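Entry — protein

Goal — fold tokens:
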Amino acid sequence: MSTGTTTPAAARALGFVRRALLSPVTVAVLAGFVLGAVILASTGADPLAAYQAIFETALGSEGLSDTLTKSIPIVGMAVALAIPLRAGLVNLGGDGQLVLGALAAGLVGLYSPLPAALTVVLALLAGIVAGGLWAALAAVLETACGVPLLVSSLLLSYPAVSLVSYLIRFKLLEPGSGIPQSEKLPAGVRLPEFMTDGGLGTGVSIGIFLVAAAGLVFAFVEARTSAGFELRMTGLGARFSAYAGVDRPRLTLRLMFASGGLAGLVGAIAVLGFPYRLTDGALTTPGYTWTGLLAALLAAASPLGTIVAGFFFAVLTVGGFGMEQETAVPQQLTQVLQAVIILFLAVRTGVFAKGGWLRRRRTSEPGAPPGGSSGAPPGIPAQPVTADPDPSAAPSGGR
């Protein structure tokens, strides 16, 4: 074979690399870092030194365990929110589902009379059920009462967070503690850890494997099952799902339970890991829900892409503290980078412009409330349909 001949495998590899380099996500990330460098240079800081500090801190031998630990809630919430987002449904109640899952797991861990190993399993299941049921309530409010999912999920988050805060501060408060936190879980009621020589000195919880497994299951279901077909059809639009025979209310309920259940699992993992207790604000103050939502948007809710995007944001979060210590550049710059990357991606792909994938899912259905029945974000109007036939009246023999 001559040296100038390109094999099919090499051609496919080159094509993959070319598509990856020219993808909207790659362009958005690079543009975000370029703009960040301009901002840093304008303040007199060294952009290269700042970026080097970010990645050396987050991915170095001392910081990698911290990054993996931080990636558990970020990636977990990203995948949780990507599940309904793949169908064009927006779940903004992640905080409530997260803390209710943590509360349920904490109560089981503190008061279960079962052996430690069974208590851990029961605590994880309790977190899934608590978060899933709370998210399912938002779906019921949409399908039964016409309250847009985006609104119902967001509003349900506030009472959940307030309830958990009240219980921690007044009913579960550790005696003599000046910090709003519960007592520690019994020594055996904890998730095992590895990389215990990390920066925090506590290691990485095996909960990271549970989160990764959840993402892989989501990827398999989305690509290989009939449920995934319904998910994709609903994401394309109401007409597609109607003529494909998708029961939208039922699908919405299932997706929201899965989304909330995974968020609750993330909360349970957090309680069963360091510091092994319920602490008021520990899961809401860092903004895991909103960082996860940004990661899901960055990956267009792609299951595997969401995992990668979530880990990337965990790198920025952990690396930001190292950047601040080594270069005196405020770690808030990493938050600016996250926002700028999403803005560039929105401009590049038209997520919030004409032809955006999130916008296309909306159609005006007969009897749908203003803005649609699935909670499209404000500013994303439904596509006008002047003579859309009743989906139930579709010809039985046609496709």
Notes: Residues 351-360, 363-399 have pLDDT under 50 and may be disordered. The radius of gyration is 23 Å. Residues 116-145 form the longest helix (30 residues).
